[in-house]
Amino acid sequence: MRLLEHLLAQDPAAPRLSIYDGDTRLDFSAQTLDNWAAKVANMLREELELSPGDAIAMDLPCSWQAVVVALGCVAAEVSVHDGQDQAVLFAEQEPEDFDGDLVLLSRDPFGRGIEETGGTLAPGAIDFGPTVRVYGDVFPEPGPRLDAWTPEAAAERVLVEGWENIEGMRKALAPMAAGGSVVVVIGGVSQTRLDEIARAERVERRIEA
């Protein structure tokens, strides 16, 4: 899998994605992101029987789980779209009048599943957390590199206050794809707190996604 090969060659353990979600801060290295992307890509192939050129819809809030779903799609050459207009949907709630394959994700910052966090899984839905974990963290197909999916960007450490759609995620991840790293701050945060995070994380620039 070529998705993050350039980052793995540079430094597999350095933080590439840092998430601030309320009181929770999580770091993801290139190695961790690569493992998650491989698990998702294998799940797309084996659980959902998707092939290169197929598509999924994603109706998820800004989160690291949304990132790894998108990364897995890029690796598996499955396009990802906003909304609910595909036969496979990754979402956090069961939509009305949807009769395709539904994969539900919880808001748990540590990636636990719907039922693992005390929720009730919709009939016929796939619980993402416990399902994706059983898949291998090596994906055998080469696929594209991540920078083929994101806009051109400088290899900087940037801060972004989340995103609203897939295009925003692509823009937010572009510095990481170029060899830099991204700090994502989720939710309404004061300017003072943003300044504190930027200093603590040694951010070079802030961007909007």
TL;DR?
Helix content is 30%, strand content 22%.
Descriptive account of the structure:
- The chain is of the alpha/beta class and 209 residues long.
- It has a domain at 30-132: Rossmann fold.
- It contains six helices and ten strands, in the order αββαβαββββαβαβαβ.
- It has helices at 5-10, 30-46, 64-76, 128-132, 166-177, 191-200; strands at 15-21, 24-29, 55-59, 79-82, 88-91, 101-104, 126-127, 157-160, 181-186, 205-207.
- The strands form two sheets. It has a five-stranded mixed sheet with strand order 2-1-9-8-10. It has a five-stranded parallel sheet with strand order 4-3-5-6-7.
- The chain is globular, with a radius of gyration of 16 Å.
Terminal Cα separation, in Å?
27 Å
SSE ordering: HEEHEHEEEEHEHEHE
Number of strands: 10
Structural class category: alpha/beta
Class of one domain, according to the CATH hierarchy?
Alpha Beta
> What proportion of the residues is helical, as a percent range?
25-40%
Tell me, what's the shape? Answer: globular
Here the CATH topology of one domain equals: Rossmann fold
- For the largest sheet, list the strands in their spatial order: 2-1-9-8-10
CATH architecture of one domain: 3-Layer(aba) Sandwich
- Beta-strand percentage range: 15-25%
| Average pLDDT reading | 96
* CA gyration radius, whole angstroms: 16 Å
Question: Topology of this protein?
Answer:
Layout: H1 5-10, E1 15-21, E2 24-29, H2 30-46, E3 55-59, H3 64-76, E4 79-82, E5 88-91, E6 101-104, E7 126-127, H4 128-132, E8 157-160, H5 166-177, E9 181-186, H6 191-200, E10 205-207
Parallel strand pairs: 1-9, 3-4, 3-5, 5-6, 6-7, 8-9, 8-10
Antiparallel strand pairs: 1-2
